[in-house]
Amino acid sequence: MERKSATWCKRYRESKTLVLLLVCLGFFIDYTLITTIVPIIPELLYNIEHPDVPLSTPQNKSTASISSDISNIFEDISNLLAGNGTGSSNVTIASPYAIDADNKTAANLRSMKHTSLMHETVEIGFLSSTKFVVQLIVTPLVGHFIPQYGYNGFMLYGFVSMFLASVIYAFGETFLLLILAKCLQGYGAAGLSVSGLTMLADIYQDHKERGTAIGLSLQGLALGNLVGPVFGGVMYELYGKTQPFLILAAISLIGICKNLTYSQTKDDIRILSH
Question: What is the C-alpha separation between 44 and 172, in angstroms, rounded?
């Protein structure tokens, strides 16, 4: 029984299909995390900069007040015609000047919000580029150290970084925390991409199989770009910004658990170094 269990664990750890799914999952998490925040980030940055001002334009109170007053007038007239007295409501018609002032205030508020959102494009661009700057720096380092330490550890660090970045996205309420999440995501993307492709090149020795495996793994990249914007927009509209990133954090945990079950021997690392 123990021998069968050991044989099953060995087959599980050395399964090419599971390795391919692990690499595909890494690409999927990375690019889903990139695109999920796209429909969320403008309003998120606005709320960070203006916590006391709601983004949606409030209803014009003067118009609502006039509608209420008109209904009260008709109610008083009906009471007078019925002989029930002069009516109980004290109706005050808003001055046209007051209405104009309120309309100008609402227009000014909309203009200020539009200007503020336009200025946030710089912050959005800086935030988006942070991830790729970190990835640009870390990727050659990962490629340099993989022959010495193996790809398994770097892939594990990549999934852990994606998990931490997702949690920070879910609960972060400051611009600095968003920058930290982007940096962690860039580090994780470097580890996942380089170690994942190295793993596939090591597992699939046949050239045709290797090309097919790498092509299939990159489908996770395309799927993440496809799913992310819709997933982020719908989840943010229904549940707020926390839930979509917690789901991605849970998916990252799956990658961490699968990576922990994969064993890379010292002989494999020695072969990589040569």
Answer: 10
Q: What is the pLDDT of residues 100-125, one digit of tens each?
A: 555 556 555 556 655 655 566 777 88
Tens of pLDDT, residue by residue over 204-229, are 888 888 989 999 999 999 999 999 99
